[in-house]
Amino acid sequence: MKDKIIKKATDMFLKLGFKSVTMDDIACEMCISKKTIYKYFSNKEMLIEEGTEVIHQKINDSMEEVIAQNHNAIAENFQMREMFKQMFQSFDHSPAYQLKKHYPEIYDKMTCTKVEDCSQMFRQNIEKGIAEGLYRKETDIEAAVKFYYTLIFSINENTMMEKDAYELEAKALEYHTRAIATPKGITELEKQLHTLNT
Fold first, then answer.
1. Which of 10, 43, 95, 185 could bond 134 through an S-S bridge, CB–CB 3.0 to 4.6 Å?
2. CB distance 37 to 23 below 8 Å
């Protein structure tokens, strides 16, 4: 029952907003009593926190799936972007923006874990791209990782609408790739951008 409550609550939080969904709404939607929810979660914040951990795990699993497909480094980043689009395209408001605005402590806790995971993934992607001749071998990997996640995180936490965040992320990805790509990498980037726009 606990997992069912987390799943339903998380779906509702993402679709309707973390702030606006109440424990009553969740109980009503699930046809259970509020008392049942409180048996597992002492308050809404606890439920949101567990829900964000589930989302985080789901994102991690999906990223691992994309990496396992063994695309080249640039194609891999575009596949990641497509994966995020599939996950969040049905939401009007950016979940990260809402969480930061209404539940900053939960947001900060989630961000620490996310920064670590994303940094590792970006680092692996750059190393892979250098090995493939798509990124310049003299690239300062740590600086490139830091620049890119600073851009992505800033977009997500400061952009209210998910659609706007998605468009800005596309520009950030192009910007990041152009900054470290070899001529071969630029050719691959142009190919990915062409596919994206057709």
1. 185
2. yes
